[in-house]
Amino acid sequence: xxxxxxxxxxxxxxxxxxxxxxxxxxxxxxxxxxxxxxxxxxxxxxxxxxxxxxxxxxxxxxxxxxxxxxxxxxxxxxxxxxxxxxxxxxxxxxxxxxxxxxxxxxxxxxxxxxxxxxxxxxxxxxxxxxxxxxxxxxxxxxxxxxxxxxxxxxxxxxxxxxxxxxxxxxxxxxxxxxxxxxxxxxxxxxxxxxxxxxxxxxxxxxxxxxxxxxxxxxxxxxxxxxxxxxxxxxxxxxxxxxxxxxxxxxxxxxxxxxxxxxxxxxxxxxxxxxxxxxxxxxxxxxxxxxxxxxxxxxxxxxxxxxxxxxxxxxxxxxxxxxxxxxxxxxxxxxxxxxxxxxxxxxxxxxxxxxxxxxxxxxxxxxxxxxxxxxxxxxxxxxxxxxxxxxxxxxxxxxxxxxxxxxxxxxxxxxxxxxxxxxxxxxxxxxxxxxxxxxxxxxxxxxxxxxxxxxxxxxxxxxxxxxxxxxxxxxxxxxxxxxxxxxxxxxxxxxxxxxxxxxxxxxxxxxxxxxxxxxxxxxxxxxxxxxxxxxxxxxxxxxxxxxxxxxxxxxxxxxxxxxxxxxxxxxxxxxxxxxxxxxxxxxxxxxxxxxxxxxxxxx
DNA sequence: TTCATTATGACTGTCTTC
DNA sequence: GAAGACAGTCATAATGAA
Length: 602
Known about the structure:
Blueprint: H1 51-59, H2 65-75, H3 80-95, H4 141-151, H5 156-166, H6 172-187, H7 192-195, H8 199-209, H9 211-228, E1 285-291, H10 298-305, E2 312-315, E3 325-330, H11 348-351, H12 378-389, H13 397-410, E4 413-416, E5 419-421, H14 425-432, H15 446-454, H16 459-466, H17 469-472, E6 477-482, H18 488-496, E7 500-506, H19 510-522, E8 528-532, H20 540-550, E9 555-558, H21 584-601
Parallel strand pairs: 1-9, 6-7, 6-9, 7-8
Antiparallel strand pairs: 1-3, 2-3, 4-5
Helix pairs in contact: 1-2, 2-3, 3-4, 4-5, 5-6, 8-9, 12-13, 14-15, 16-18, 20-21
This protein binds a DNA duplex (18 and 18 nucleotides) through strand 1, helix 12, helix 13 and helix 15.
């Protein structure tokens, strides 16, 4: 490993805002109304308590009474989505020219996504026949789903692509959701306003209503740092006029839905329209991550500090089998992204195939919720086992509701008859895109593994965003990794095939530093890894020294602590001013220092 | 002292109902 | 449009065993 590096590779390209990447910039798209999704869409109401109401509900959709009654018997009264999917499936098979060749209906159930079509006219007149049970094996599940999706009104080619994209165990509704998302994305190239609706309003509101503390914080911070280090922060206050963030005021949700960011792998989407504020344009590139569902005003503040770039909100459920709603602020190009290969499984049954055998039909989950730092207690899983063992099969609705609530809350999976269990650490590693046993051994306890993994990046998601660096830096990159954790950024870049020339990693936890170093040695890295425990040690002098030594940093990446932002925290959800989450200001301090030093030196 | 286990709501956005 | 129900969330603190 060599500490000496040449400086030719890091600055051999032109820094331009995204709109200068070659393509003409289309005018900003008008904002989408909240429910402007193209294609079939609609809502499924909760099951009525009365059976007759339930029958009426589905009959109103055009299904025959016999068909509805049979579907309710199959699924129980409590699962209206499963009933509807069964109805759609039967209807489609009935109409399909290959219906007599198809296998018995294998009902898979969707998550709670609402993607059912408004226009059910095509499936409204099918009669449910007793012969339906005679479907023979022969046509694949894939064909059946394709048939259903076409019946729902989706184009066959899009349905076919979505089936491949979502994997063999994805339910029809989940696949429909995927098509829905793709259509939404394709119909309107996302602008920053689309990605962060009413951004301007929130910024204005936050700086007006609660802005005093934010403004004061910034002012105090800037004054303090100005004293510390000359005038590196003597820059103008954020310029809101740049980057199309101030145009118009809208109400509504802050977080876009679906949370797909500028693009998703293997989705046909128009090139997104993004204009970076001048102050945001590098070098270096930077990439900041934190929880999407932070308290009000947090992302506005983060964005204001990070050169007024609007966050790219992405849910990792589009990359793996678990939800992970995160916001990313970066100045990376957004064209020509590509995903890591192989593509991870998108359903929990596919990712953890051993659970399939025990997964009850009344558990509609196909994806897990956010992987957290804590797991369910043994007492809870025992309570669930006892409740199920003492119930009929299927259990009554009351028991199902109790079990489902706990399973969703704690991400429990089925490991035996009536037996649910939390994920094992190695399963979390796999779902998050880390190599097996990444956090195992080396003196780390099981509890600590859960904590470290729960705090980490989802590698496939981050790698997709970072993939644009591969062609820019064929000889590798110099990386400044802040709050590295267990090395999600390093693993992502390595898996992308981007050589890590010099890595300066800042991580407080000794355990996490050991994990990263262990991975570094195990993967035979030929670059140099410098780890630093305390972010405060990275002052201007030390950064200048490193920048001179390495020839500058190509990427400054990090996700500052979310402890005080996360909804799970019921004790100290204090926002950006919280003890840990205030370290965001160190991310900005260091990034701004690097920009200034590199601006002077290169 | 370390680690495992367990119990502990609040906040926010979305959906449903009226 | 308002009010209430519902669902999801990179967690913290107390306790006891080893």
